[in-house]
C-alpha cells in the first residue's frame, strides 16, 4: 500500500471510530453548556501520536462533522465550531508532540503537554465559533453563547472535562501497542 493510500485509510478508520464513539456520549445532558461531553477524544489523540498531525486533524474533523450531523441533524454548529476546532486542535497536538519528542521529552510527558495545548486550541475555536453563531445568526439554543465569557467557560469546561479519562485510555492503548511491537514511543 502506498503512502497516500495508507494515509487515506487511516483517516477513514480514525474518523469512523471517532464518529461512532462520540455518539456514545453525545446525548448525555450537559446542562446549559450545549457542547458534548466527549471522552472519545481519545481516538484522535491516539491518531496524533501514532500517525501524523495531518491524519489526526483530518480524521478528527471528519469524525466530529459526521457525529454532529447525526446528533444535531444539521452541519451548521460544527462548521463554525467543532470541525475547525477538531482539525486544528488535533493537528497542533500531533505537531507539538513531535516537537517535544525531538527535544527528548519523555513520551508520557509529551503526550500530556501536547494534549493540553491541542485541547486549549480546540476550546478557543469552539468558543469563538459558537459565539459567532450566537451573535450573527442568532442560532436557536445558543443564546447564552452570545456572552463571550460564557462561550469560553463552557468550551473549556466541556472540552477539558473528559481529558483525564481520555489520557488514561490513550496511555493504555499506547502501552499495549508498544508492548505488541506495533509502535515505539
Q: What descriptive keywords fit this protein?
A:
single chain; Arp2/3 complex 21 kDa subunit ARPC3; mainly alpha; 185 residues
Summarize the entry for a quick read.
The protein is an all-alpha fold and 185 residues long. Helix content is 75%, strand content 0%.
Number of helices: 8
Strand content: under 5%
Look at the structure and give the mean pLDDT: 91
Quaternary structure annotation: single chain
- Secondary-structure element order, N to C: HHHHHHHH
Task: Assign the CATH architecture.
Answer: Orthogonal Bundle
CATH class: Mainly Alpha
Q: Rg to the nearest angstrom?
A: 16 Å
Indicate the structural class. Answer: mainly alpha
Count of domain modules: 1
Largest sheet: none
| Percent helix | over 70%
Low-confidence stretches: none
State the total count of DSSP E strands.
Answer: 0
Shape: globular
Q: Termini separation (Å)?
A: 24 Å
Task: Output the CATH topology.
Answer: Arp2/3 complex 21 kDa subunit ARPC3
Provide an overview of this structure.
This protein is mostly helical. It has one domain (3-171): Arp2/3 complex 21 kDa subunit ARPC3 (Orthogonal Bundle), CATH 1.10.1760. Helix content is 75%, strand content 0%. It contains eight helices and no strands. Helix 1 runs parallel beside helix 3 (53-72), helix 2 (42-50) packs antiparallel against helix 3 (53-72) and helix 6 (107-137) runs antiparallel to helix 7. The two termini are 24 Å apart.
Amino acid at each position: 500500500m502506498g503512502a497516500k493510500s495508507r494515509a487515506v485509510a487511516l483517516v477513514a478508520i480514525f474518523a469512523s471510530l471517532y464518529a461512532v464513539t462520540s455518539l456514545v456520549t453525545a446525548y448525555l445532558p450537559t446542562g446549559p453548556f450545549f457542547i458534548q461531553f466527549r471522552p472519545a477524544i481519545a481516538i484522535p489523540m491516539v491518531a496524533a501520536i501514532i500517525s501524523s498531525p495531518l491524519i489526526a486533524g483530518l480524521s478528527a474533523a471528519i469524525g466530529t462533522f459526521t457525529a454532529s450531523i447525526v446528533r444535531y441533524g444539521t452541519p451548521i454548529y460544527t462548521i463554525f465550531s467543532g470541525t475547525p476546532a477538531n482539525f486544528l486542535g488535533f493537528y497542533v497536538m500531533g505537531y507539538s508532540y513531535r516537537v517535544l519528542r525531538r527535544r527528548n521529552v519523555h513520551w508520557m510527558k509529551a503526550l500530556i503537554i501536547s494534549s493540553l495545548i491541542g485541547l486549549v486550541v480546540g476550546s478557543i475555536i469552539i468558543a469563538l465559533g459558537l459565539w459567532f453563531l450566537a451573535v450573527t445568526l442568532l442560532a436557536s439554543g445558543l443564546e447564552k453563547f452570545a456572552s463571550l465569557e460564557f462561550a469560553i467557560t463552557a468550551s473549556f469546561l466541556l472540552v477539558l472535562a473528559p481529558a483525564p479519562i481520555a489520557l488514561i485510555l490513550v496511555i493504555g492503548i499506547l502501552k499495549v501497542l508498544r508492548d505488541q511491537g506495533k509502535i515505539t514511543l
